[in-house]
TrEMBL record:
One of its GO terms (molecular function) is kynureninase activity. GO terms for biological process: anthranilate metabolic process; L-kynurenine catabolic process; L-tryptophan catabolic process to kynurenine; NAD+ biosynthetic process; quinolinate biosynthetic process. Pfam families: KYNU_C (PF22580). This is Kynureninase. The modification N6-(pyridoxal phosphate)lysine is found at residue 220. It is an enzyme of class 3 (hydrolase). Homodimer. Its EC number is 3.7.1.3. It catalyses: L-kynurenine + H2O = anthranilate + L-alanine + H(+); 3-hydroxy-L-kynurenine + H2O = 3-hydroxyanthranilate + L-alanine + H(+). Pathway: Cofactor biosynthesis; NAD(+) biosynthesis; quinolinate from L-kynurenine: step 2/3; Amino-acid degradation; L-kynurenine degradation; L-alanine and anthranilate from L-kynurenine: step 1/1. Its cofactor is pyridoxal 5'-phosphate. HAMAP family: Kynureninase. Pyridoxal 5'-phosphate binds at residues 96-97, 125-128, 194, 197, 219, 249, 275.
Amino acid sequence: MNLPEKARKLDEADVLRAKRADFVLDDTVYLDGNSLGALPAAVPGRMADVVAREWGRLRIRSWTESGWWTSPERIGDRIAPLVGAAPGQIVVGDSTSVNVFKALVGAARMAHAERDEIVVDATTFPTDGYIAESAARMTGRRVVAVDPSELRTAFGPRTAAALVNHVDYRSGRLHDLPGLTAAAHAAGALVVWDLCHSAGALPVGLDAHGVDLAVGCTYKYLNGGPGSPAFLYVREDLQPRFDSPLPGWNSHRDPFGMSPRYEAADGAPRGRVGTPDILSMLALEAALEVWDEVPIEAVRDKSLALTDFFLECVTAYLPAGRVESITPVPHAERGSQVALRCADAGEVMDALIARGVVGDYRRPDVLRFGFTPLYVSFADAERAARVLAEVISTR
Ligand SMILES: Cc1ncc(COP(=O)(O)O)c(C=O)c1O
Ligand SMILES: Nc1c(O)cccc1C(=O)C[C@H](N)C(=O)O
């Protein structure tokens, strides 16, 4: 069977095939959902209603009558099953960077003062590293950057908290969340997980693995839109000890009491700060409708099948040695993207985009292809590899 035929067969057998119709797509092969997810078809209509009716006509009444005020917790509970969390532990709002700050300072404040180190993975997305440095300065600690392969043994009696990326944004490597969480706990430390590249792409199992705190964005695999608000998870039994470094009035026990004295709310709302960005918040809520009746396990199965098939096509179509995959082959170590090291990667990506295959380029030499199982097909994967081979053969 040739590869286009194989793609056709795989698409026919795909249990998520019908989901593609829930998105606004064209004939572009869109493999950049790990940076900005595609637009779910339900969003424009819902936004028109939010703007015209809820804002335009109900105005201030919408904070209560349209459920605006409680949307951060409500939408947190909608995300919760996708990351394996029971209700009441996730709040939506602010950017990922801000939530990394809240979570990491919050974790460091829970640790004994004698523990003077904050461990980060050395390949972290930059914002996490920058914020860890600031969190360390604020809490009287120092940052220790550790190669992900050595994290397990890096946790010790000096570790206050760790900040680890679940999936590496560049290589697509999936880190061992259960094992590293257990290792940190054995050393008496707390871990904050950054789920930006795993939420909506694979099962995370926050509660099952005893994760302490986690953050993630919603504009990648959750398709919430550009700059859609991020989420913060604080495990239920840690919530009473969570001392937010940004205790804005929205996290007060009685916000409308307008008291000069701060008293933290119980539960997930303790992670709130100020007035939520309602338009983005409600766009995200509408976007999450595509998840109705979608088991995250089915998404994971398709994601692995897509990345396997794309790698098979790349191997078949490209001259040996022209690109090198830096994404791990074992499924247990792979997120939902394929990263190919390639000479002139920036120009190659420009040429791919010009031919209707959209991935992205990460300096100095990486072509990144994100596979969003809800709307990417096996035919897309085959076409992307074929066009990549054409582009490379003309150079
Ligand atoms: C792992 C990771 N953390 C954080 C961010 C970004 O944070 P923010 O949403 O604050 O821009 C990204 C992507 O932009 C990311 O890939
Ligand atoms: N958040 C982004 C943005 O505002 C503009 C462009 C790209 C992004 C991204 O999300 C980048 C992404 N986190 C990455 O993994 O490279």
